[in-house]
Design a protein that fits this description.
This protein is of the alpha/beta class. It folds into 2 domains: 3-130, Nonspecific Lipid-transfer Protein, Chain A (2-Layer Sandwich); 139-420, Rossmann fold. Helix content is 43%, strand content 19%. It is built from 15 helices and 13 strands. The radius of gyration is 24 Å and the shape is elongated.
């Protein structure tokens, strides 16, 4: 056998065959390195991808074309991947110790599917040992978690968000719409669902950079109080309101949603529930119950799941500490104790995938500026986060729920949904 290009077949835990190759000119790699790579391949569920070690030893799919190649640059990186799973994959990718030849999104979609179908015993042990439970969202914990993600600088987000700085799912009535048009459509879609009228008193929990509050005031004549615990976002929104002369119609409050007080006709929260934590749903429900008028309307827009599951360990640890996307059943912990009636549920999963694709294109265009602002590891980490999020929505691991609700005794609710789609 020619040791310069040797091929053998091996069986995975599920009985499927994959192919291993060594083209180093020095024979097969050391036995434990080959074993480690095979274990990693099994942990990933025998995906339709190739894996290559630093010395040329590789595993490729037995049948069909490989979607991408994962190149592992050191023995230490291989050990980390086998032992620490998702956390190691993210950290090692960010550090440049893993490279991907091929489409990263396609690779991650494939990994979602292969891992769902097959989990080896070692993979299950690794997940139990290194899984990341969401950190507690106390008043101080929530502030710390939001600071970690949102207060890294407005200039960074300006590079790749739309001009209104909306960091939530857009709404694409037409799939080929621009990001700017789709984000405007999202705000109008929400306002129509809420039947917003001039003079309505609105409270927003978690307002980002203030775009929805601004839109409601300027285009619908509402009087808005918007709450946010991100210092950078609240400062940006307040300064813009003063500079553009609508600070008499919109007030931005840098404080926790749990401290909301007063009475309002409308409660709205877009992209905040992911940061609340299920242990605080009853507190959020009490806030809505206390502040909402008898004939008030409310809407929560959130990333969610079809089945309860912890956040990806790397994203929860490095990108979104304290994050937890709920199922619809879990969201009922906000509504049922307070006798709220669900009026409408819409799933915008594919809309978020499309939104993220727009963000990724803009992020890639600004990659040199991101590196200059931070460093190459930060730039790679955030690219992995965006690609992984696209993959999660395309595969269906994540959903995007808009839940419209009102008080259970409110007989002023509309008889149809036509108002949601008529300008």
């Amino acid at each position: 056998m020619d040791s310069r290009n040797s091929t053998v077949s091996s069986r995975t835990a599920a009985g499927e065959r994959f192919r291993t190759e060594d083209s180093t000119g020095n024979g097969f790699s050391r036995a434990y390195e080959r074993w480690g790579l095979r274990q990693l391949f099994q942990q990933m569920g025998d995906p339709q991808v190739s894996m290559r070690l630093w010395d040329g030893f590789s595993i490729t799919p037995r049948q069909g074309e490989s979607l991408a190649t994962i190149k592992i640059h050191s023995r230490r990186t291989l050990a980390q991947l086998v032992l620490k799973g998702d956390v190691a994959f993210g950290d090692e990718f960010a550090a440049g110790n893993i490279e991907i030849d091929g489409d990263l999104v396609a690779l991650l979609v494939e990994l979602y599917g292969s891992r769902a179908q097959q989990r080896s015993f070692l993979a299950r042990v690794v997940e139990l040992l290194f899984r990341n439970r969401p950190r507690s969202n106390t008043l101080q914990g929530s502030r710390d978690h939001i600071h970690h993600h949102y207060d890294i600088g407005n200039a960074f987000y300006k590079l790749w968000l739309d001009h209104e700085m909306q960091y939530t799912c857009a709404y694409f009535p037409e799939p080929d719409m621009s990001l700017e048009a789709a984000q405007q459509a999202k705000m109008d879609h929400i306002c129509r669902k809420l039947r917003l009228e001039p003079g309505d008193r609105v409270v927003e929990a978690g307002c980002g950079w203030g775009s929805l509050a601004r839109h409601m005031a300027l285009h619908y004549g509402a009087k808005v109080t918007a709450w946010n615990i991100s210092h950078e976002q609240a400062r940006y929104a307040t300064e813009r309101a003063k500079a553009e002369g609508y600070d008499d119609r919109v007030r931005y409050v840098e404080d926790d949603y749990r401290n909301i007080s007063g009475e309002y006709d409308v409660f709205v929260s877009v992209g905040m529930l992911e940061h609340v934590g299920e242990q605080n749903y009853s507190a959020l429900g009490s806030v809505v119950d206390t502040c909402l008028a008898a004939d008030g309307r409310a809407l929560i827009h959130t990333i969610g799941r079809n089945q309860p599951k912890l956040m990806n360990a790397w994203i929860e640890k490095r990108i979104f500490p304290g994050a937890y996307p709920p199922t619809l059943r879990e969201m009922m912990g906000i509504l049922e104790p307070n006798n709220f009636s669900v009026l409408d549920v819409e799933n915008l999963r594919l809309h978020y995938a499309r939104t993220l694709e727009h963000w990724l294109l803009r992020y890639d265009d600004a990659s040199d500026e991101v590196v200059e602002m931070f460093d190459p590891a930060f730039a790679r980490a955030w690219r992995l986060y965006l690609c992984g999020s696209i993959a999660a929505f395309l595969y269906g691991s994540l959903q995007l729920f808009q839940v419209l609700f009102a008080r259970g005794r409110d007989n002023t609710v509309p008889w149809s949904r036509q108002h949601q789609y008529l300008s």
